[in-house]
UniProtKB/TrEMBL annotation:
Transmembrane domains' residue ranges: 35-55, 113-134, 176-195
Listed Pfam families: Mpv17_PMP22 (PF04117)
Source taxonomy: Eukaryota, Metazoa, Ecdysozoa, Arthropoda, Hexapoda
Main localization, broad class: membrane
Family: Belongs to the peroxisomal membrane protein PXMP2/4 family.
Protein name: Mpv17-like protein 2
GO cellular component, one term: mitochondrion
Keywords per UniProt: Membrane, Transmembrane, Transmembrane helix
Locations listed in the record: Membrane
Alphabetical GO biological process terms: mitochondrial ribosome assembly
Presence of the UniProt keyword Membrane in the record: yes
Protein's membrane topology: Multi-pass membrane protein
Family matches, as InterPro entries: Mpv17_PMP22 (IPR007248)
Alphabetical list of PANTHER family matching this protein: GH12661P-RELATED (PTHR11266:SF81), PEROXISOMAL MEMBRANE PROTEIN 2, PXMP2 MPV17 (PTHR11266)
Protein species of origin: Drosophila rubida
Amino acid sequence: GQRFSSHGKGETSNDFSFNVARWTKQVWNKMFGKYLLVTNVLGSGILMVVGDIIAQEYEYRHGLRLQDRYDGERMYRMFVAGALQGPLHHYVYNWMDRVMPQRTFRNIVNKILIDQLFMSPACILIFFYTICYMERQTLEQTHCELLSKFPYIYLMDWLVWPAAQYVNFRYLDTKYRVAFVNVCTAVYNVLMSYMKHDFGIEELLEPAGASQIEIQKETLAPTENKTS
């Protein structure tokens, strides 16, 4: 009787593990099958937030954030900006794989060029105009900020993404392309979030930006002299 009882427990445990594995597989297949667009949109938003949380933690620990440790409204804006990029990634990557299905070196290079020359600038524009709109900045302020930061961010794009996208286009199936990009973006967005919120361009957006910068330099000068 004792052996029968322990055998029953073992069967129950095996059944539970089997059911969990089967359920996980079903969910995975739906995420990257029937509901792929939803997965790509939510994944883009969530992993944008992950990058922003890392950036906020860095800012807090280095004394760059004087308010609360985490800014929930800022995280929400980052989620929206990321989610809006999801459909663009989804449809463009599907289109590229449909038009260039073979994984030849030429096709991979063409896809990387499309990504860098079209997708990257588009995503940067979506990112900045979405967040600046939600911050209630004027179009003039948004243009000023974008013109100041775009060259730096776009340069970083060329340094980071071609190698990552080579791996993406060479080795992964179409359904995993956006997920891979989102995971890479979670790390890359640490830089994006820092550039957006702490690059120091905010002073230039004020009506009296130049005079304010001069005042700040004058007030900082005595302190700098003391420290030196």
